[in-house]
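During the second year of the project, the team shifted from modelling isolated chains to modelling whole assemblies. The rationale, set out in the original proposal, was that interfaces cannot be judged from single-chain predictions alone. As a representative example for this report, we include one of the complexes processed in the last quarter. Its constituent sequences, exactly as entered into the pipeline, are reproduced here:
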Amino acid sequence: MKEARRILLLGGTGRLGMAIARHIRLAANASIDACGSARETGPSSARPAPALFAPSRIALALDTRIPLEAAERWIETWKPEVIVNCIAASDVDRCEHEPLEAIRINTDLPGALAKAARRANVHLVHFSTDFVFDGELRRPYREDDPAAPLSVYGESKLHGEKAIASENPSHWIFRISWLYGGRERNLAATLLDPANAGRTIALSVDRIGVPNPVQLLAREIVHAIGYVHGPLQPADGVYHLSCRGQASWHEFGREFVAQAIDAGCLAPGNAPRIEAIHEQTMERPARRPPWSVLDASRYETTFERPLPDWRAAITLALQRAE
Ligand SMILES: NC(=O)c1ccc[n+]([C@@H]2O[C@H](COP(=O)([O-])OP(=O)(O)OC[C@H]3O[C@@H](n4cnc5c(N)ncnc54)[C@H](OP(=O)(O)O)[C@@H]3O)[C@@H](O)[C@H]2O)c1
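Output from the structure prediction step:
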């Protein structure tokens, strides 16, 4: 029998990282393979559930001045077949004030991971963002549309993509957008929090994108990992991974609360009031793209995974509400 796939998850305490860890553990406990809907020719069908290593920030002891040394040490320690990098400087406004930290974490670290991964024949899964675009296109962005970030965060993430591509290990970069779901630090958790009962929560009507539950993205990543180093492994490069459709944050908030009430996850009396605001008039350190819908058809076709509309995907966040 083949050995279990060894997955090193970096940033497992973050929003997406936590969901991926949980999904891998669920798959392991349920004794299902990491490919989810395994096909006859599916690469992981003959392998036991993956072994997950999700070291804490302290265990990683990342010295961002010498990220290559750190990346090589991690590979030596955990001997992964796949690295899933969820480490990010993701506070968009903070990145404006701390550009060097943004570059170290969002550009230099992915570049170092890519170099170390190539040398050790490890597959690298990395995440980028809709914020690499300026939001002027007004049709869903494809992978090869020109990037023009408006913020330090977007710029540092775009350079992270380029750093990986130039090292060219076996890799996928998933550009994702608007995460929600999980226990904390996200809009869904705020909307479900009984402490916010009756309070007014202001959400923008003038920024359009696609909200994605971390549970859906985690499921897709675990599925994708099943292909690694197999005969059907999809081509390296950038893939947009995002639900279908489009929404403003205000539209999302109202729909989420309505579905949470219908599903019995939120008592009507505990629902917050959702107010519309115009974000473009707000003074914020970082500029955001006003329209950043991602076209995920390349992902859907290549990985053979149809993605749901953002409204339908809300169910996943509510099922997982704990
Ligand atoms: N959130 C969104 O809406 C969104 C949208 C589009 C794309 N993305 C991308 O999706 C990916 C995941 O984002 P996320 O929202 O899940 O991020 P997040 O919640 O901010 O998590 C970031 C992770 O990175 C870790 N980290 C940060 N600096 C570190 C350091 N110096 N050493 C070690 N670990 C460090 C954090 O550890 P601690 O917990 O210890 O701080 C945490 O585990 C990122 O690549 C992000 O750019 C996010």
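The first helix runs from residue 15 to 29. The domain at 6-182+210-245+292-309 is CATH 3.40.50.720 (Rossmann fold).
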